[in-house]
Amino acid sequence: MLPELHRLRHEKDMKTLFARGRSVFGSLVGMKMCPNGLPVSRFAVVVGVKTAKSAVDRNRIKRRVRSIVQTHISRVKGGFDVCLLPRKEALTAKHKDVEASLMASFKKGKLL
Questions:
Q1: pLDDT per residue over 70-92, tens digit each?
Q2: For residue 21, what is the DSSP state?
Q3: Rounded to an integer, what distance in angstroms lies between the CA atom of residue 99 and that of residue 9?
Q4: Measured in whole angstroms, how far is the alpha carbon of residue 64 from the centre of its chain?
């Protein structure tokens, strides 16, 4: 689980992120990001019903992505709100492939 300091929780922050954020999409994971003016970056993982019909599958994808973020959180630049948007293919992909796609998205968005 992500440390509380790095969790993006409030609806107001999410609305701001989706209204003003910049989009970066990889093969398995996309993201919206915008500056937050804080010394740390905050993350949220959103998996819609279109991505996975079953709540079990949606939660599995979220746990996978959160664990990858947690292992690489020290390398990510501070000062951003980031919403991670896994695609349908992330459910059947191997953990290494999801990790590679997420790291490529971070590099593309200049968060590493």
A1: 999 999 999 999 999 999 999 99
A2: P
A3: 23
A4: 11
DSSP at 51: T
CB 99 within 8 A of CB 21: no
Listed in sequence order, the DSSP H helices in 1-112 are: 11-20, 55-72, 95-108
Cβ-contact 34, 69 below 8 angstroms: no
Q: What is the mean pLDDT of each run of 10 residues along the chain (112 residues)?
A: 92 94 93 94 96 96 96 93 95 95 94 90
0.90 exceeded by the pTM? yes
Domains of the chain by start residue, with CATH: 4-108 (3.30.230.10)
